[in-house]
Amino acid sequence: MDTKMQEKVQMLIDHFDIREVIEAYVDGCDRCDKAAVRDVYHPDSWDNHGPLDMCGPDFADACVQSLIDNWSTCNHLLGQSRIRVSGDEAGVQTYFHASLTREADGVTMLDQMVGRYIDKFERRDGQWRIKDRRCIAEWSYSAPTGEDFMRGDLFLHGARDPSDIANEVLGLKPGNMRIQR
What we know:
6 strands, alpha+beta, Nuclear Transport Factor 2, Chain: A
């Protein structure tokens, strides 16, 4: 394989590995798995998520605890990522849409936020992790949900913990929401 082709293959591998970390982050949040969220950060990382502005591992614990304490459900949808790798460092921008539900005075509320994760990644010992994250809020909205036309047993229901059926199907293990190789 020529040098140009090797560089392109390495770029594809780096992009894949970085995107896996981003996906592991949102899956860990949605499943309320503190260890999995903590795993995406370097020990000396930082995350500025609005009111939660602290080192990455502490953010992971505070974020998941906030999700447990304040919301009944949490689902992230990821959009496109722009990834620029330079050696063992990468700049990454990823769009997201987070939807959460909570109870307020007997009414189910839907809270939504659309924004971007602006990340600096570093590869250490062959592993990509977040070194610095800034969460950009583009807009947010809260409203009562109204009647749930799917309430009941028409569909299977997910779990907000590592027992969720997707973990078994994907071969994921609690505390590490990335594909086990």
